Amino acid sequence: MLDERNYWLSFSVFSGIGPIRFKKLLLRFGSAKDAWGAPKSDLTKALGEKLAEKFDRFRLEFSIQDYARRLLREGVSFLILTDKEYPELLSQIKNPPFLLYVKGDMKILNQSMKQVQDRVQNDNGRRYIAVVGTRKTSQYGREVTKILTEQLVANGFVIVSGLAIGIDAISHKTAIENNGKTMAVLGCGVDCCFPKENQGLYNSIINGNGCVISEYPLGQLPTKGSFPSRNRIIAGLSMAVLVTEGAEDSGALITADYCLKLGRRVFAVPGPITSGNSKGPFKLLSKGAKLVTKGEDILRELKVKSEKLKIKVQNLQVKDATEEELKILKLLQNEPLHFDELARRTGLDSARIGSILSLMEIKGMVKGLEAGLFSITS
Q1: Residues 114 and 218 in one domain
Q2: Angle at 12 between CA 259 and CA 131, to 5 degrees
Q3: What CATH number does residue 49 fall under?
């Protein structure tokens, strides 16, 4: 016998009904089961003539049992909004998905506000942070994302992102390489990997390193509108979002804007002022995002107390430095030097020296002082 959850599942397959309409149906009919079996005349009053006609044809042809068996074959689970396992952070957003499809380790979705708060204050439970950015990355953006994600994973964060090429993929991959957990939110069905270039990463996530999540039914391909909708879920699952690199019109800023509206923390990494990929973070900083030059900035803002990051930075050896970084360290070994003096002595242009110094600050090699001076971190 079919239960109420099966009817929620059935409505999730019908493309004409999203969170807003589904909520109205529940209010009108009392349950998904009663809405599913309602007379067409009543559905017309609730949905309008065209949509009611479309839905009536759909429910006559759709087999709930066949679809449930398909989920089982694909290894896909689902949560509805009223399930106790449904992520509490996500349930707080405006119009949360009434159903989430999950492929992989669903246990990492089991968050409650108590778990999140305890994790921040008492180091129990889980922490969730979104790491997002541009698809067209620079070397600077790739390095920054890798360094900061490593530091977040070392301090117990689950990394949430969108499986896109670029910053998303780097954050997922870095989490896995550092024995962390990661969640990929898709703008298509969880049985579809988009983009195809990330199939290996998708497989790695679902095979023991996290899970992929979507509000869209099996087999649904991405559309132009599905990505902004996906971004609201990324923001909703996360206690904060970190934007490491992105243009002024980057989709990552949609995720960040959702977080700002939710009253959650937004972190942005400043980049070279000559780079178009720095415009997104600078725009967020002007809206009140917190500036990040090292992982400690995030931990401090979120009131996370951990020794792991301090140990990692203190143990950073010269052998980890690039040739250019070694040159700068050698110049700074006796005294602090001004930015312009470092550029002159290294022979590097200002954009390049700025990128290198920013990365060295994030790595904990150098620190910026007043009046444009830099020194080796003590």
Answers
A1: yes
A2: 25
A3: 1.10.150
What is the chain's pLDDT, residue by residue, as a tens digit (378 residues)?
Answer: 689 999 999 999 999 999 999 999 999 999 999 999 999 999 999 999 999 999 999 999 999 999 999 999 999 999 999 999 999 999 999 999 999 999 999 998 875 444 445 544 434 346 899 999 999 998 889 989 999 999 999 999 999 999 999 999 999 999 999 999 999 999 999 999 999 999 999 999 999 999 999 999 999 999 988 998 999 999 999 999 999 999 988 889 999 999 999 999 999 998 887 888 889 999 999 999 999 988 889 999 998 876 555 444 444 445 568 889 888 988 898 788 999 999 999 999 888 888 888 888 888 888 888 888 898 876
Looking at 265, 281, 311, the residue that finishes a domain is: 311
Co-location of 216 and 293 in the same domain: yes
State how far the Cα of 257 lies from the Cα of 131, in Å rounded to an integer: 14
Residues 176 and 65 in one domain: no
Residue 296, in any domain of the structure: yes
Q: Does 79 fall in a domain?
A: no
Place of tokens 């050896």: 317
According to DSSP, the β-strands at 265-268 and 157-161 are: unpaired
- In sequence order, the 6+-apart residues with CB closer than 8 A to the CB of 73 are none
If asked whether residues 132 and 207 sit together in one domain, one would say: yes
The domain in which residue 162 lies consists of 88-311
CB 366 within 8 A of CB 373: no
> How many structural domains compose the chain?
3
Q: How far is CA 76 from CA 98, 105, 180, 293, in A?
A: 16, 10, 22, 39
Supply the pTM of this predicted model.
Answer: 0.83
